[in-house]
Amino acid sequence: PAKFREELNGGLVITRQPDRCLAIFTPAAYQAAADRMIAGSSSLAKVRSVQRMFASGADSSTPDSQGRITVPEHLRNYAGLDKEIAVIGAFNRVEIWDRASWEEYEALHEENFADLDEDAPEQQTDA
Q1: pLDDT tens-digit map of 65-90
Q2: Would you say 93 and 25 are in contact if contact means Cβ atoms under 8 Å apart?
Q3: Do 96 and 87 form a contact (C-beta atoms < 8 A)?
Q4: Which of 98, 94, 83 lies closest to 14, judged by CA?
Q5: I need a surface site. Which of 35, 87, 113, 119 has the fewest CB within 10 A?
């Protein structure tokens, strides 16, 4: 999407995410995420697994003059990207989903998300 192009023009890293989607990071955001994972205890099997999957699927790229990137086949297969996709912003990354998978995820979590407000401590905002 155009709103992300400027930040990603200098390069990006695309990799797997646990929900069968892909994440696109700026190189600095990818390194920050990797640093957080590296800080996890590699003596725990789940931590090692996440570290391996995150790092081994990573691919660096630079968008072309029209802002397009090529998603490597192994990543397209992982996320099930065949025809229609959904591209969403997720704070420090852009996520790419198979459209049907995103719609299913969104429908499943939308009501839970609305209910989260009830459990959250009151937040103050400066006006």
Answers
A1: 888 889 999 999 999 999 999 999 88
A2: yes
A3: yes
A4: 94
A5: 119
